[in-house]
């Protein structure tokens, strides 16, 4: 064929583009012959050309068939032959596959929502799949089904099954399994180094059997889909610190640490840190994996050194507030100089393994008071919001009255910041002879006996009522076992070091000041702050379940205190708080008083 614009080719009909013929298996070489004069020269090559064209045609047909099959196999977003949960999703769009899979899940809904039977270390139980977040993630499953197969040819003639993507809340599942396991879990024995005096005491690490959350989730996913009971395995876990590492810590640190004192040098002088103080402050702490890490607790170190630090430190003094002339008056505090604890612990830890050169340098830094006059003046402490008084007998000459006065002086002028909780035990510490307290009657074992600090419960009751009528939050209090008429029923509190405490929280946005005062027969506690309530009152319910006291004879002697006996009863008290003319809070307090026996110091009459 001639194309316009091209020259007519010569009489040679050979193709312009040279093609290499395909040799078929039945091709055999032609015998070498001389063509006849009247036979065209190209005749011998014609059969080969025909075979070549035939081969080309067959190949093209195969390729066309493959292409057709490929187009069929890849029709839709999900390749044909792909199934999930026995449902054919192949050839569908993602949206259709999503709908079809959801329909299949709806058909299985009852089975999948039913309780799953599990066994952990021989203990069996059932868990609700929804409670632990077991579900099929349909979009993620469809995405996995639509993903291209790595072996494209297998998609033309084969099939494949795609597992559903199952989600589970690993933390909630682990919590549920731990409840099934109960106390049967064999936890790891964590390594430990402590001191008895200055002698290191060691606890060797031991492996334990425990749940492994990810592995638990894996077996629960599979069992849930299969609808079979699941046995959750326990995995042996070893503490991260090995026995060899523990022994090395003892040899290289714990023992040499307390072999000699350490000298702490400062610009104001030196302090010896004795082995006993080192033993109290050197900590070996194990994390959840059982990794033991040494550190120095600087707070414990300061407590262990006690008054020795007074030779080099000047403690800061907070601003104070007193009531003068019926109004609060502020006195500014002063800064101090104390050891910088930021690096002291690490510096001390570095020299403890050494036999020589056991010295550290401490830096004294200015320490501002926690409460300045400016901050104190801005707390809104401006008026008395409540006050309460109780009476006592014996005058100030009695030990009980002296104890009341002593604790009142310790608490007087205390400022409680907004949101903070006040603890009476925490504020005063132990109330013993060293702190100025004396023996006076206390209730112990159901009877009055002499005991150090007797009378402090009366102060506690007075303080409790002052905070009660200020509308402050009651955190912890305990009424007496017996009711004494010097206290209001139910609304009173005892205290005993260190087991019984009184605590309240300043649940206002203002600071508050505790102001105490006493006479020879009264103790008064007032709360100063900003008044936020119209009134706080108490409404009592009737006494019920009244019981009479028993008569008990005791051995005469110094420990016997005679009593007249008091009835026991149960009563309710309601704290009613009003603001803006309306009741904003009504709280119920209930207490059951035992009948205090009538104790007689002497034998029963014959």
TrEMBL record:
Coiled coil: none annotated. Residues 1-48 are annotated as: Disordered. The keyword Transmembrane helix applies. Pfam families: PG_binding_4, VanW. Keywords: Membrane, Transmembrane, Transmembrane helix. The chain crosses the membrane at residues 53-75. InterPro entries: Glycopeptide_resist_protein, Vancomycin_resist_VanW, YoaR-like_PG-bd. Residues 31-45 have a biased composition (Low complexity). Residues 242-360 form the YoaR-like putative peptidoglycan binding domain. The keyword Transmembrane applies. This is Vanomycin resistance protein VanB.
